[in-house]
Structures are given as structure tokens and as C-alpha cells.
Amino acid sequence: MxxxxxxxxxxxxxxxLCSAFFLSNPLMMALVIAGTxxxxxxxxxxxxxxxxxxxxxxxxxxxxxxxxxYAPALCRIYSHTxxxxxxxxxxxxxxxxxxxxxxxxxxxVLLLIPSYAxxxxxxxxxxxxxxxxxxxxxxxxLVEDLCTRKGIFPFFPFSPWMVxxxxxPCDKTDPRIAQYHxxxxxxxxxxxxxxxxxxxxxxxxxxxxxxxxxxxxGTMVYFSEISIRCDPGSAGDVKIPSPAKSx
Length: 247
Fold this sequence. Notes:
By secondary structure, the protein is mostly helical. The chain contains seven helices and three strands. The chain has helices spanning 3-21, 26-39, 55-78, 97-118, 121-145, 176-196, 205-222; strands at residues 161-164, 227-230, 239-241. Strands 1-2-3 form a three-stranded antiparallel beta sheet, with no helix packed on it. The longest helix has 25 residues, at 121-145.
């Protein structure tokens, strides 16, 4: 998906979860949301530099961190596997579960070690909340991208198989992405409405927020006509359709 779709969907997902965990703690809520908004951008190392200065330029600058630090390291590691990647801008590097975990582990080291060194509990908790948002954002990025035709490579470099959907993010005639935005927003508003009216008991915050997030992501995947196939650049192009069908 394009950057603005990633940001909008991830922001609403983060708000759904944060409203269950940190509604009474604005600072922690802000840190998780900030981490999610940054984390959802990190896998897009293939992003090209915008021709004009805009909000997308800020996203491009954020992406330069994993592209120039993490991606070259992954290239070196993957050079010893069956699927070497010479180009540090190859999206397969971080559009995968191993890639996301590598980026997250390195980010944890960069943030948690200095925060622990300060000996300040608030700083350590703040770093942990931010990192929680980062892994949430990167996970949401993978789920959102597997709905598009370019898809993701979940187990690369151990497997060349990719998971992809049928959505073209720039196709304005396809209403599904707009529907996903409306759906996410509706779930968020319903959750806040139940909370503000006092109808929702505190012990139900967590299970209902997780259920709401699961419904949003599950229906998004279901209606994106997901299929599994081998990366055309690796072996044959064998397609295995999933049971999901469009409506």
C-alpha cells in the first residue's frame, strides 16, 4: 500500500489497542502511537525520494535509517543463504517476518541499552512503550501489504514463496481500500462511544479491542483475494489460491 494508506490504517489500529491499555495514560498512549506510525514506515526501504517537499519526504527520511543501516547488514547475512540479495533497496529484505524481527531486535538494542543506562524507570518504560508501537506498526505493515498485488515474502530468505492479494493501491476504481478505512474508523468510534457512555466494563476493554482489531484485519485480508505463489524471480510461478473470495 502507499504511504498515506499505511499511516491512516496503522493509526486507527493503534488507537483501538491504546484505548484499552493506555486511555488513562496520555504519555504512554502517545509513545505507542508514535512508535506505530514510525514502525509502519520502516519496511518500505524501496521508497523513492519525493520530487517535491511534502509529508512523504518525512517518511522517506525515516526510511533511510533501515535502508542505510539494517538493509546492508541483512544483505551480508543473506549472502550466505540460498537466496542472496545484493541490493539493499530490495523490499524482500524487510517485507518478511525474519527481516522485521531483525530490524526490531536492532532497534531494541539501540533504545533499551541507553535507557537502562540512565537508571530512570520512566525513561525505560517510555522506551518500552515506543518499541511496542514499533513492532505493532511493522506487523501491521506486513498485513496491509499482503493484501496488495506486490505482496510480502513471509519467510524470506528461507523460502521464496510470497503471499499477495489483488489490490492495486493506486487504482481509484477499486473501492476496497476506502472501505477498509471506513471499517477501521467505525470500529474505533464504536469502541470510544461504548467507553464514553459507560456501557463497557473496564475488564472488557482488552478482549473487545483485540476482537475489533481482529475483525478489521481479518476482513481486510479476506476480501483482498489472498493467494500464495512462488517468487517469479526464484523458481517457477506456481499459484495456490486461498479459499477467500471477493464479494
